[in-house]
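S., here's the first fold you wanted:
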Amino acid sequence: MCSDDNPGKLPPVLYDVEPAIEIDLEPVDSVRITTLMDNVTDVFMPDQGPAHRVQQGAGPWRAAAVMDHGAVPDALIAEHGFSVLVTVSKGDQDYRLLYDAGTSPDGVVENMRRLEVDPSSIQAIVCSHGHFDHTTGLDGLVRTLGRTSMPVLIHPHFWRRRRVVLPGRDPLELPTTSRRALEQAGFDVIEEQQPSFLFEHSVLVTGEVPRTTGYEPGFPPQHAWLHNQWHPDPLVLDDQALILNVRDKGLVVLTGCGHAGVVNIARYARRLTGDQPLYALLGGFHLNGPLFEPLIPRVLDDLAALHPRVLVPAHCTGWRAHHAIAARFGPAFIPNSVGTSFHL
């Protein structure tokens, strides 16, 4: 693994963390995943299998001075970001967590208002990684909730100062989440590199994901500011996923961007849980753009070997990968949109 003590020594793409032991992930009765933020909103998208869509005209309406004959729907917001609300049912208990928080300060909290989600019902937050398109919405949540002791689970590299370096362009430094701001808001910030649990062993946070496929490259344009200079930081080691085990169905795996590699993540989820079957895989698969699109055939071959029954590519997956997944997996492929609730 890479170390801040020796930032110039880059790890190869193929590496592993400490040998994983099988983890006793408690089965849950059901999971409901509601998309609070994604790149797409579509009020005409039909229900499909476990996906229940927000229908045209549902939710609050508002007056518009330029419109005759009444109000217009208070439309959901889409942006290049990701956030989902995860509701876990186990016996007579329901648990709620927020996984990622979108790009804009107020997008997620505004969509919560439109979807009539009470932010105070959230019991924990998990950040998939430190990129701002998954974290900036914490700002609106802080202002909405006020001071709160809610736990926020992150990887230690979450705070890294980073930039993106693309050929022919000036380096672009990325905004970084403020540790001081989160701590002043009262959040209980928990840094963990290894797997950890939430809600009585019902939700597993992967921590750092081993990169074992050898072909999923992380995010090659990324650099990190370490020891007063910029160094390549392609692996995005803070990228972590969520795993749940739905009784009689199998694993539900949630990714943010999938910088660890969606195949690496799915395989690691099975490895951690004693080779439980993969039931559903949802989130960003990061297969967009010229660096990643050549990987699509190989990724889909490896995903097909895991026999998922539900595939919901989102956010940074890219349109070419969406089309390829639809063609390869048929009805298992379900397109996402803001406001969609998946009952799994």
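And the second, which I think is the more interesting of the pair:
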Amino acid sequence: MKIALVTPAPRGSRLGNRVTAVRYARLLRELGHQVAINPRAAHEHALLFALHARRSAGIVSAFHDAAPERPVVVVMTGTDLYCDLPDDEDAHRSLELATAIVVLQPEGLKRLNAGWRRKAVAIRQSVAPYRGRATPRKRTFDLCVVGHLRDVKDPLRPAMAARDLPTTSRIAIVQAGRILEAPYRAAVRREVRCNPRYQWLGEVPRHRARHLIARSRGLVLPSFAEGGAHVVAEAIVDDTPVLASHIDGTVGQLGADYPGYYPPGDTLALRDLMDRFERDANFRARLAEAGAARAPELTPAREREGLSALLDSPLLRG
């Protein structure tokens, strides 16, 4: 089948939507399909996969107008589910036109109304284990933060929390990601200058980000909203424990009973969680075990099976 896969993230981008698009293209090709990412004539394809309901709304509408009998799959992102969905008309129209809807973790299904939920499936993002050598630094107890800097990610919360750790703490916050919103340029410079526990690497290639996650003692995900963070999946398969804000998207990945959550935006709670994580080896082991229990759900074979089942389902076959 000829499949058009559209994403608002351009070629070469390291944004999550582009990572998902490239992975979907590979898995769909492994299933025997022809896939083009952001083709000029999407309407000439037999099926459309559209990442991001709001930002891909124009292409979804144009595809439906040109070929109303051909199926459209809309893949929901974090901003779709937790920011746009309540009242954005473009996102709503995409979901109304969609033949099927994909969310990246099961909690996302709860955000959809009954009509949309009937044509929705949850397919978890997959990750292959990191194959390189990744040895933690001995001088510091590194906690990494990996993701581009914008308000919805609350990116400097870990650095702020680290300021008030006990003087005996060896925790260092190592952050990788591009600044997407201008105010963070000055904020990052100020944090680097004033916070000896903070290091910002800027935007790094995918393999370097992956190495950082694998060699760190833990990953901190401080976001206010996530559709299903790819870095959480990477940390799980690389046996890197996760400390995370308690939000639906991450609960959908780690489970409601995961012990490593803190209230979103709560600097003191995150400080205490990081302090406990450093001092308490049993707590670290509990987090590692809880993550390892999720790893079998995140294999490429499992995600490929999910996509295959979707393409063969009554949703798309009529």
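Why I say that: The mean pLDDT is 93. The domain at 141-297 is CATH 3.40.50.2000 (Rossmann fold).

Talk tomorrow,
H.
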